[in-house]
Design a protein that fits this description.
The complex is a heterodimer of chains A (296) and B (522). Helix content of chain A is 65%, strand content 1%. Chain A is an all-alpha fold. Chain A has a two-stranded antiparallel sheet with strand order 1-2. In chain A, helix 1 packs across helix 13. Chain A starts with 6 loop residues before the first helix and ends in a 7-residue tail after the last helix. In chain B, 58% of the residues lie in helices and 10% in strands. Chain B is built from 18 helices and 15 strands. In chain B, helix 3 packs antiparallel against helix 4, helix 9 packs antiparallel against helix 15 and helix 11 packs parallel to helix 16. Chain B starts with a helix and ends with a helix. Classes of the chains: A mainly alpha (296), B alpha+beta (522). Chains A and B meet through helix 1, helix 3, helix 4, helix 5 and helix 6 of A and helix 1, helix 2, helix 4, helix 9 and helix 10 of B.
């Protein structure tokens, strides 16, 4: 663009920089503050944003270690953060693997095979996906409460129930994978078919190896989606050792027992890896955003 | 795709052809195992009295086997697992929620009629005259001895016990003059309670004693007897309680009820409460209005901040836009449950960092969580922080697709940035942005996590029968009715969810229609 820029424009550029830097300062303030708080001794102390005295007491507690307090008493970790993190990772990994398996196979049929009411199925799926799961919490609770009466391994307070409940969220992933499959030329599979491969073989041995990138993306998306899920996990899991991170973190900040510093360390410890995974996958997530998904 | 990709796959294909057809029996064994498991599942549901669920499961299992064991449809083999998951965990719960909305399912009416009846029939009462004090002794490690003492006659009976015996028949006890000293402590007995509860003792007189309490055994008789017409008679005084399918309780003629009640259909009673119950309607309407306000204001502020940033960052004269963009994207990358809780701490009235700063600058300490209006302001601030990067990213993409010559033309005409924005940028991005904003609206309309983690809807309305928060939105309110407060009124919560369900349906259809309209224009 060849537009002559005058003095006035120079001022505007400077103003924009000031505006952006101010905004970024405000935006990043909570994130920086929480790091600083996690390094500040005590749960109630209000201090400067840059801690004058560095203490790792909150970090020790977050990592499951006890430390000797100033009054000579040993301070124990208030909550099993690492256990919660492990629960979260376990549930999210298994759910994500299953979600990828379910959505890949379905996406194959929607992308490559001809069958009746294909468009109706696709649209119904899209419509159903728009209803937040929060609306069906009572029913989800009732279903697992009743199942648990007969099959305790699938009832309330089991991780399996949470994993199973998450399996419904495959619709958007089916759309994503279907879109990717459609960009892969069909001729390769047709050749394989001519060579005598069965449908399953063309899918499993020809198409899937070419679709590994999208499978990774869907895995990461499903993983993040389940690890940050709160409502369903909060009704199905109630006992302390069973909780996921998303449900458990809340207990740090109760009105009666406000463990601000301990929470800060636990939050940085558990939030950082998820944030990094998200930033790493940002490129693909952003391209998915335009198709209408909203992060929860 | 290059040839290099094709050749290894065709090689592996050749291998695959050689391997797979040799083992059809493996597939049959797998199918048989799956069938046995599935039928066991269905059968257990049926035995448990969940006939309808059993039938549904049977149909689903039948369809599954029909698809995989025949060549009826190749596509169905691929879609069945995914579509079944969507059906069971998305569609079915929504339908089930609607159904629960017509019942009185709640903590007082948790059980089905059969289970509630069975529960009542299992109730027993101990005969006071036959009470015997009970103690457990462990004279040696391998030996466990039970001693029963009649407190009136001081007569003692003892018996050796075998741990983990199934204990169906009463164990005979023999009269003994000796006492064994101190028995096991209460804590040890509590640990053994499951075992002790199953024990029965037969006195030399032939009287059978069962578990009555942690310290006592006694002759135990059922409280209730079932009559032919389904009513229950109390053995003690002959009082008759009939099941009332309108209220979901066993009731006598005076209207006294037995707990637990059972789940019954109550028709539109839950919906009628929303419209006609004054105590309930007041907070319900305020909550509904706040839900709308919250969603609308969120969309407005998020869009305002997001588009402004997108426009500024898209300015060619601005250097370092990529760094700014990455930093501004950060709030979106941090998991919501963490950033919301971080704000909960930062906004804390007494030792939150935000009030520390406000106090230093202006000498004020706003009560963010105690004041209803400030709580709402706080919710909006946090929501904008969480949501603007999404709009920023979307708008950046849309602005990039605007042809540059439009701005060149406007520069020649001498237009300023504001004119550019309102006359060129905004009109061009609003069309593709609109359906996404409907999506953002729908998302915030049901933004349960924000409310649940930040304020829990508090502060509450004063003097309401069903506890309700001033900044609850509809979904957090239903969550509260169902899972938080003691009543656990699932029926009412499901009815409200159903109402919200229809509102969301309207938004979803609007969203889809606008998306479609946009696509057709392109």
């Amino acid at each position: 663009m060849a537009i002559v820029t005058g003095k006035k424009n120079q001022w505007r550029v400077w103003a924009a920089h000031v505006f952006l830097i101010a905004l970024i300062a405000v935006t990043l303030f909570p994130l920086l503050a929480v790091i600083s708080i996690s390094l500040r001794p005590g749960n109630f102390a209000t201090g400067s944003l840059i801690p004058t005295e560095i203490s790792f007491e909150h970090w020790k507690l977050a990592l499951g270690m006890s430390y000797m307090g100033a009054d000579g008493k040993e301070v124990h970790p208030p909550f099993p953060v690492l256990l919660w993190l492990w629960n979260s990772i376990k549930i999210a990994t298994i759910s994500a693997v299953l979600i990828v398996a379910l959505s890949t196979t379905a996406a194959y049929a929607f992308a490559r095979l001809k069958f009746k009411y294909k468009t109706s199925y696709l649209n119904t799926m899209l419509l159903l996906e728009m209803f937040p799961r929060v609306l069906a919490l009572v029913a989800i609770f009732a279903i697992f409460e009743r199942l648990g009466a007969h099959f305790p391994w699938l009832g309330i307070e089991t991780h399996l129930s949470v994993i199973v409940a998450y399996l419904g969220g495959v619709a958007t992933h089916i759309w994503t994978i279907k879109g990717y499959f459609e960009t892969i030329p069909q001729e390769i599979e047709e050749n394989a078919r001519v060579d005598g491969a069965t449908l399953w073989q063309t899918f499993y041995r020809v198409l899937l190896p070419m679709a590994v990138p999208i499978l990774m993306v869907v895995f990461v998306l499903a993983f993040i989606g389940t690890i940050i899920e709160y409502p369903i996990a909060s009704i199905l899991l109630r006992e302390e050792p069973n909780l996921t991170l998303a449900v458990g973190s809340k207990y740090y900040l109760q009105d009666q027992k406000f463990l601000w510093g301990d929470f800060a360390a636990a939050a940085v410890l558990s939030g950082l890896p998820i944030t990094l995974v998200f930033l790493f996958a940002q490129k693909w997530i952003v391209s998915g955003l335009t198709s209408g998904g909203v992060k929860g | 795709m290059s040839d290099a990709t094709v050749s290894p796959t065709s090689l592996s294909l050749a291998r695959a052809r050689a391997q797979t057809p040799g083992r059809p029996w493996l597939a049959w064994i797998a199918a048989a195992v799956a069938a046995v498991f599935a039928l066991y599942f269905v059968f257990s549901l049926y035995v448990a009295g969940q006939t309808l669920w059993a039938l549904g499961a049977l149909i689903l299992v039948g369809i599954g086997f029909a698809i995989y064991l025949t060549n009826w449809s190749a596509a169905a083999k691929y879609t069945f697992p995914g579509l079944t998951a969507i059906f069971i965990f998305i569609a079915l719960p929504l339908l089930f929620t609607m159904q629960i909305g017509f019942t009185n399912y709640s903590s007082n009416h948790l059980l089905s009629f059969d289970r509630a009846t069975a529960y009542l029939l299992e109730q027993t009462t101990a005969d006071e005259s036959s009470l015997h004090e009970f103690s457990l002794h462990r004279p040696s490690d391998s030996m466990l001895v039970a001693v029963l003492v009649n407190p009136k006659t001081n007569e003692k009976f003892r018996s050796e016990l075998i741990l983990n015996s199934s204990g169906t028949s009463p164990i005979p006890v023999a009269s003994t003059p000796h006492s064994l000293g101190d028995g096991l402590s209460i804590r040890e007995r509590i640990a053994m309670r499951d075992y002790v509860q199953r024990l029965q003792f037969a006195l030399p007189t032939g009287e059978v004693l069962s578990y009555a309490s942690l310290r006592e055994f006694a002759k135990v008789t059922p409280v209730w007897k079932q009559n032919a017409d389904g009513s229950l008679t109390r053995a003690e005084d002959g009082a008759v309680y009939k099941p009332n399918d309108k209220t979901g309780f066993y009731e006598n003629e005076a209207g006294d009820r037995l707990t637990p009640g059972y789940t019954v259909n109550v028709g539109f009673a839950n919906y009628a409460r929303m419209v006609s119950d004054e105590n309930f309607r007041g907070p319900f309407i305020s909550i509904f209005l706040w839900t709308l306000t919250f969603a609308l204001l969120s969309v407005f502020f998020v869009t305002a901040v997001g588009t402004t940033l997108a426009v500024v960052l898209n300015w060619e004269a601005l250097k370092g836009a990529t760094i700014y963009r990455t930093l501004l994207f950060l709030p979106y990358a941090v998991p919501g449950f963490i950033s919301i809780l971080v704000f909960k701490g930062l906004f804390n009235q007494n030792f939150g960092e935000i009030n520390t700063i406000l106090n230093a600058l202006f000498g004020i300490k706003p009560a963010w969580f105690a004041d209803p209006y400030l709580a709402k302001v706080m919710l909006l601030i946090v929501n904008v922080w969480l949501g603007f990067p999404y709009i920023m990213v979307l708008c950046t993409g849309l602005i990039k697709s605007i042809p540059a010559d439009l701005y060149e033309a406007s520069a020649i005409a001498g237009a300023g940035p504001l004119t550019n924005f309102f006359k060129i940028t905004l009109p061009l991005i609003i069309k593709p942005l609109a359906p996404l904003l409907v999506g953002v609206f729908a998302f915030n309309f049901n933004n349960f996590v924000l409310i649940a983690l930040l304020t829990d809807g508090r502060p509450d309305f004063l003097n309401t029968k069903v506890p309700a928060g001033t900044n609850d939105i509809l979904v957090s309110y239903t969550y509260r009715i169902a899972f938080k407060d003691s009543g656990s009124d699932f029926g009412l919560a499901a009815a409200i969810s159903t109402v919200v369900f229809f509102m969301v349906a309207v938004m979803a259809l609007l969203h889809l229609r606008m998306m479609k309209a946009n696509q057709e224009k392109r």
